[in-house]
Amino acid sequence: MPLGPLTVALLLAVPLATFAPAVAAWVGVALAALAAATEGGRRRAVRRHALLAEVLAHVPQRCAAYGADRRLIWANAAWRQAFAPILARLGTPRPRYDDLVALAVSELPPLQRETERARRLARHLAADGRVEEDIAPDGARVRLARHALQGGGVATVAEDVTALREHETRLAESEGRMRAVLEVLRVGIWHLDAEGRTVFANPQLVALFGGRLPPGIEGCGLSLAGPADPSGPFGFPIRHEAEVILARPGAAPLRLLATASPWLVGADGGRTTVLSLQDVTPLKTAQARIEHLTEHDALTGLPNRAAFRAALEAVALDSQGGALLLLDLDRLASVNDQFGHEAGDQLLRDAARRLRQSVRPTDMVCRLGEDEFAILAFDLPAEAAPALGARLLRQLREPFVLGDREAFLTAGLGLARAPQDGDTAEALLRAAQMALEEAKAQGRGASVLFEPSLRRRREERASLRQALARGFAEKEFALHIQPQRHLGTGMLAGAEALLRWHSAALGRNVPPPELVAAAKEAGLLRDLDEWVLREGARLLGLWQGRPDAPPHLGINVTAASLLDGGFARSVADVLDGAGIAPQRLEIEIPEDLAVRDLPAVARALSALREVGVRLALDDFGSGHTNLPHLVNLPVQSLKLDRSIVSLLPDDPRAYAVTRATAALARAMQLEMVGEGVETEAQAFALRRAGFHVVQGWLVGRPVPADEFLPAAPPRQAAVR
Q1: Residue 132 contacts by C-beta under 8 Å, 6 or more apart in sequence?
Q2: Which residue, of 269, 274, 377, 552, has the greatest Cβ tally within 10 A?
Q3: Which helix (H) or strand (E) holds 402?
Q4: DSSP 8-state symbol, 602
Q5: Which domains does the chain have, with CATH numbers?
Q6: Over the chain, what is the mean pLDDT?
Q7: Which neighbouring-strand residues pair with 405?
Q8: How far is residue 100's CA from residue 107's CA, in Å, rounded to a whole number?
Q9: What is the CB neighbour count within 10 angstroms for residue 56?
Q10: What is the CA radius of gyration of the chain?
Q11: Statement: residue 4 has pLDDT above 50
Q12: Which pLDDT value is given to residue 277?
């Protein structure tokens, strides 16, 4: 027999007690009134029941009743609204419960589908009033209760908790993320209840207290450096930083910045607050030392050298350790020459900005000089220092935009850590300086971490520089001459002057690369180049008019002199003073010099060509040259690098490069010289490729000038 609305309303009173207590109370009152009513009062009870049925029809819970055949016989508005799309698909307003279950499990795999269908039908038939969570046919997550009706029917009441579960999931995920953040945050986080007892603390807070978590704020050693805020939790100001002193047994006091949240009300009604504590002891120490200084660089806004020295001591004395990074920019002078000093200033400002952005807020970036910077990293773990240095160099390697042009920088970086590399300011600075010197010696863009062996190398370089100064005073330098000869005739085609130094102080011959490096460190490169220029001119003067003298003498000078705007004038003056025709002097240009700044090199060489000297591109083919160098540089000669000659005649690739170089030189009307020729086979391969002039031990080793042209010149045999 179908159930009427009144009967359904009465039967739903029990499940509604779980989800809607107010409605359940109304139903209970109605049942009591119906049982106690007289025949004359049943009409009033029926009216009350009708009102209750109307209430049930509009409650937010999904209410429904199924007959013994499991067909829907009644549902309220909430149920029908939720199931409207499903009813439309089934094509009936009174579907069977079996059809609803079939739709709910239709997306599952076959075996799981049958298992789930059987489970739901069994729960429906049981109708034991138990409340459980389930997935409704429309996909919603619901809390559901089923109750048996007279005649075998079942009444269901369901409450949609989808949004609630999603909210709980989001809260759990958010809580997990927040806890993970608090675990790695470099600020101590302390959650306290209203009595000041610890609720939660992250590892950083435990570390601040020396590895022991205090049970509460009482007696923990914290004291406000200023007046307490009576409106804040435990006297701490809300949302504003306050300076706090933390006294720890057996350790120096720490200076902290503390911030408190307002009182928070928990789920149980209790109040809590959250304190954040950040150790600023090293920074405060540094600030105290530089308050009286004029502490910023006018161009970049960075702390200057005076501020750096004051803060350096704070890093060296910091018990938590730290690091000093010294950074020296390369090619800044080239940018000034190429783009102007205003562009160079902009580049420095941009470089300073990148350095600031690459470090932590508590680190200190200083400008020490024109192209020198220092980074003081307070409380930095020793193993993290190299990664910081790599990040700084990586940021500087990105192109700098100067108007409509781009400029590129590299930098050398030396890194020292406190206290292992230096426990005083001076010791830490010396260690970083030694690391920087080594980085610059390794080449552009190098980064070096200090190690004790650098001290020995520095001492050796210092001894070398002292010996170099003595070498100038004692006239210990000499030029050895190596001939260049025509293949076939053996005639002298030219010669190259090679710098040699036997140091009396060191008791040994110093190789040219070591000599040049020492001169660079000592700031004597131009002095060395000037000596080579004057000695070469002197020899040409001695050989004046001799038929056995070479047609020209090549000398090597460094980039420091070649890129000096006054070098061409100095060459002209020296040649005039010695009475030497300019074409008898050949200046050899290192191939890698052209790579550094092609426009500046081209300008310098053009000035030398106006003087009239010969120019040769040395070490051609060693890996740096490309066609723009040849097109833009006013050279008359190419010297094929010995690294290629050494592979002849057996390496076909080396021979192909040799032939291509010869063809290119002939097309550009350039003279060609093969360097480093030691065997007849190499000479034959060069001649077959198109070379006619060679230089190397096969035709003559470098010898002192008085041996190269003695009073009675020896007769030279042809090389065939």
Answers
A1: 123, 143, 144, 145
A2: 377
A3: strand 400-402
A4: H
A5: 5-160 (3.30.450.20), 185-278 (3.30.450.20), 283-451 (3.30.70.270), 472-708 (3.20.20.450)
A6: 83
A7: 402
A8: 13
A9: 26
A10: 45
A11: no
A12: 87
Q: What is the pLDDT of residues 62-99, one digit of tens each?
A: 888 898 898 998 888 888 888 888 888 888 888 998 88
- What span, in angstroms and rounded, lies between the C-alpha atoms of 417 and 187? 23
Task: Please answer whether residues 374 and 327 qualify as being in contact, where contact means their C-beta atoms are separated by less than 8 angstroms.
Answer: yes
Of all residues in the chain, the percent with pLDDT exceeding 70 is 84
Distances from the Cα of 650 to the Cα of 314, 380, 397, 474, 545, angstroms: 63, 56, 41, 47, 43
For residue 604, which of 343, 345, 334, 332 has the smallest C-alpha distance?
334
Three-state SS across 34-89?
Answer: HHHCCHHHHHHHHHHHHHHHHHHHHCCCEEEEECCCCEEEEECHHHHHHCHHHHHH
Q: Within a 13 Å sphere around the CA of 622, how many CA atoms are in the beta-carbon half?
A: 18
584 to 221, 570, 571: CA distances (angstroms): 84, 16, 12
Write out pLDDT tens, residues 141-177: 888 888 888 888 888 888 887 777 776 667 555 555 5
pLDDT tens digit sequence for 573-611: 999 999 999 999 999 987 666 555 667 788 888 999 999
Contact 475, 535 (CB under 8 A): no
Nearby residues of 342 by Cβ (< 8 Å), 6 or more positions away: none
Buried b (16+ CB within 10 A) or exposed e, 111-141: eeeeeebeebeebbeebeeeeeeeebbbebb
Cα distance between residue 594 and residue 322, in whole Å = 41
Is 192 within 8 Å of 258 (Cβ atoms)?
A: no
Residue at 664: amino acid letter: L
Whole-model pTM: value is 0.50
Measured CA to CA, the distance from residue 407 to residue 483 in angstroms comes to 42
Query: What is the rounded distance in angstroms from the CA atom of residue 268 to the CA atom of residue 247?
Result: 34
Nearest to 413 by CA among 438, 388, 436: 436
Q: Is the pLDDT of residue 719 over 70?
A: no
pLDDT of residue 2: 40
